[in-house]
């Protein structure tokens, strides 16, 4: 009897070449989110069917520095215009400014129509319109494409100072002091 191995997150060699292997959903979603530079939603269970929004991209688009949200949904298959309507409904419910659907499959004409009907988001700080809902495939993202969004703000928490016990920085000696 052979021991069953967990699915791999990459390709594995086989006797006939390289074959793609299934990848667990949380890992697959985080890889897709990294392609659009989205932060994963914390504390979500990834069991069973997809439960909606997988990540968020924050951007600043006004002079007050207010953060705006772009919600990201990752779908591996079975995407349709209903997927777009659900994403648009979630954007409205969550009061998010924009949304991005990342999918393995190419979009259909009805999906593109739903995205176009969602309209544009006008950024007051950048005085520019952005599509409110965007559809990007993994294939397109892997060639260097990215969502059309206002500039994002990468923030980092300031690290606290660490003082070494028993050590002090020596005083600087003035070059003009005469001994």
Strand content: 15-25%
CATH top-level class of the domain at 23-40 and 51-142: Alpha Beta
Order of helices and strands: EEHEEEHEHEEEH
Strand order of the largest sheet: 3-4-5-6-9
Number of helices: 4
Largest sheet: 5 strands, mixed
Overall shape: it is elongated
CATH fold-level topology of the domain at 23-40 and 51-142:
Trna Endonuclease, Chain: A, domain 1
Low-confidence stretches: 1-26, 45-50
Q: N- to C-terminal separation?
A: 86 Å
Level-2 CATH architecture of the domain at 23-40 and 51-142: 3-Layer(aba) Sandwich
Q: What can you see in these coordinates?
A:
The protein has helices spanning 25-35, 81-94, 109-117, 138-142, and strands at 11-14, 17-20, 39-40, 55-60, 67-75, 98-103, 120-123, 128-131, 133-137. It contains four helices and nine strands; from the N terminus they run ββαβββαβαβββα. The N and C termini lie far apart (86 Å). It is elongated, with a radius of gyration of 24 Å. It has a domain at 23-40 and 51-142: Trna Endonuclease, Chain: A, domain 1 (3-Layer(aba) Sandwich), CATH 3.40.1350. α2 (81-94) runs parallel beside α3. The longest helix has 14 residues, at 81-94. By secondary structure, the protein is an alpha/beta fold. It is 22% helix and 25% strand. The strands form three sheets. The protein has a five-stranded mixed sheet with strand order 3-4-5-6-9, with helices on both faces. The chain has a two-stranded antiparallel sheet with strand order 1-2. A two-stranded antiparallel sheet has the order 7-8.
């Amino acid at each position: 009897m052979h021991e069953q191995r967990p699915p791999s997150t990459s390709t594995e060699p086989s006797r006939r070449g390289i074959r793609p292997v299934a990848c667990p959903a949380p890992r697959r979603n985080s890889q897709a989110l990294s392609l659009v530079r989205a932060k994963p939603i914390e504390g979500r269970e990834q069991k069973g069917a997809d439960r909606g929004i997988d990540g968020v991209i924050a951007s600043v688009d006004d002079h007050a520095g207010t953060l705006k949200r772009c919600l990201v949904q990752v779908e591996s298959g079975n995407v349709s215009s209903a997927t777009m309507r659900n994403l648009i409904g979630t954007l409205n419910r969550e009061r998010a400014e924009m949304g991005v659907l990342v999918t393995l499959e190419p979009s259909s004409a009805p999906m593109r129509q739903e995205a176009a009907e969602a309209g544009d988001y006008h950024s007051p700080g950048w005085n520019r319109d952005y599509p409110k809902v965007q559809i990007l495939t993994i294939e397109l993202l892997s060639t260097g494409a990215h969502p059309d969004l206002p500039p994002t703000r990468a923030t980092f928490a300031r690290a606290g100072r660490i003082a070494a016990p028993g050590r002090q920085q020596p005083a600087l000696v003035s070059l003009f002091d005469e001994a």
